[in-house]
Specification:
Helix content is 5%, strand content 50%. By secondary structure, it is mainly beta.
Length: 311
């Protein structure tokens, strides 16, 4: 048994009883008089494993427990486990203060997870409570020769689930190009590009050739980047994109009009962009080549996009 000599013990008082097992002893003094070194409780099940408590009423003399109550948690029923089995656990013990109806919760202060395995089936606290403190009836732990102990056990189980968030810079196939042909005859409120997969999400450009409603209608070109099937995203899931919206001047790239945006897309905010991207007067300026052969070229260049993988 590993010595508890240098382990800090944390003790706090609470109202709630232990969640998993309560061990009540009547006529505690008679148990002590039997000279028993330790008393083991019945088995009980927590987290799909079987456990028992080992109480040393006069302390575990082999584990630095002289003058104390010692209490240990032991895993049971391991005979059919594989040779390399292990169970990782965080646990705390309890002693009932019967006078104030409170529970003293006791655990090792380092908070380390305890590993139960073939060579180590028992963990506990050798110096749970000093016998002097325990036997003093005013403290409420031993009243009318009765006392109550308990334990809460939290089994750490690896579910095998993993989520990996990647921020991808300059993703492959990261530019969506949309040619709005017959611009002068574009009477629909908006037009959309083909859907394109960038990162692990599907995107498209949405162009309002005469502005998107309200005060923008008839004065501005409105352009948006839209996350397709955003409604399929899990709750609270978002997709980040840093992107440029661009209108090309076919003959003079230095005249290209572009604006950079950075947004988190979600089921409720699946479309981001600019409702006043460009004045129609500038767009239709004959000295520029934004509209050539009655075709407007609009692009969305995604520079950074988030991608999530779940395993």
């Amino acid at each position: 048994m590993v010595s508890d000599m240098f382990v800090e013990i944390k003790r706090i008082t609470r109202d709630l009883p232990p969640a998993h097992y309560i061990f009540n002893i009547e006529s505690f003094s008679l148990l002590v008089d039997t000279g028993v070194e330790k008393y083991e409780s019945h088995e009980f099940e927590v987290g799909s494993y079987k456990w028992s408590l080992s109480l040393y009423p006069n302390g575990n003399l082999k584990g630095n427990g002289s003058g104390f109550i010692s209490l240990y948690l032991q895993i049971e029923g391991t005979e059919n486990f594989t040779p390399t089995w292990e169970v990782n656990v965080n646990f705390r013990f309890f002693v009932h203060d019967q006078i104030r109806d409170k529970y003293l919760a006791i655990e090792e202060g380092d908070g380390l997870i305890k590993r139960f395995y073939q060579m180590k089936k028992k963990w506990g606290i050798a110096q749970l409570l000093s016998l002097d403190h325990f036997n003093d009836a005013t403290n409420g732990y031993l009243v009318d020769d009765c006392c109550t102990f308990g334990v809460e056990i939290f089994v750490i189980k690896h579910t095998g689930k993993l989520e990996c968030l990647s921020m991808i810079k300059n993703p492959t196939n990261g530019t969506i190009t949309f040619y709005l042909q017959n611009y002068s005859k574009a009477y629909s409120d908006y037009y959309a590009s083909d859907v394109q997969t960038i990162g692990d999400s599907k995107w498209r450009l949405v162009v309002y050739p005469r502005g998107k409603g309200g005060i923008w209608k008839g004065y501005y070109l409105s352009i948006y980047l839209e996350l397709i099937e955003a409604y399929l995203l899990p709750p609270k899931r978002k997709v980040y994109a840093n992107y440029k919206l661009r209108v090309r001047d076919k003959y003079n790239s230095s005249n290209n009009k572009e604006v950079t945006h950075a947004n988190w897309f979600s089921a409720s905010n699946y479309q981001w962009g600019s409702n006043h991207f460009m004045l129609l007067g500038v767009l239709q300026d004959k000295t520029k080549s934004y509209i050539l052969n009655d075709t407007l070229t609009v692009e969305a260049e995604i520079n950074i996009v988030s991608k999530v993988k779940r395993f």
